[in-house]
Amino acid sequence: MTNFSKDEIIEKLKPHLKIAGFNKLRTNWHKEKNDTILVFNVQGSQWGPEYYLNLGIYIKALGTEVKPPVYHCHIQCRIEHEKYIDVNRIVADSLEWLGNHDNIQKLKRLFEANKLPLTTFLEANKFLKTVNIEE
């Protein structure tokens, strides 16, 4: 179980996410891909020192934001960081999830297999239902 404060986890995540090509803006990291923007977010709890690790996929065809906050992302996921004992594993699993959702082709396949997260915006589902992709 990670016992880091929000500020400590942010500092520990910085070098890992920078190496992976993410740019930091406050408590968000963004990585631009051809048709999506990947977002990694550290959200502080309003009730105490706890924090949450959120991942998001912003579909460029559905908006114009360049550095979207995670709550504007069309597809979202929360990492249960409490089950981890080190930051390396958090980063590895987070990057794997983001990599599995990082383009329209992958998202379309996940949509067709009914494997998108429950926190997928209706707008994204409608788009993925109708979008044509080239294999």
Automatic annotation (TrEMBL):
Pfam families: DUF4304. InterPro entries: DUF4304. This is DUF4304 domain-containing protein.
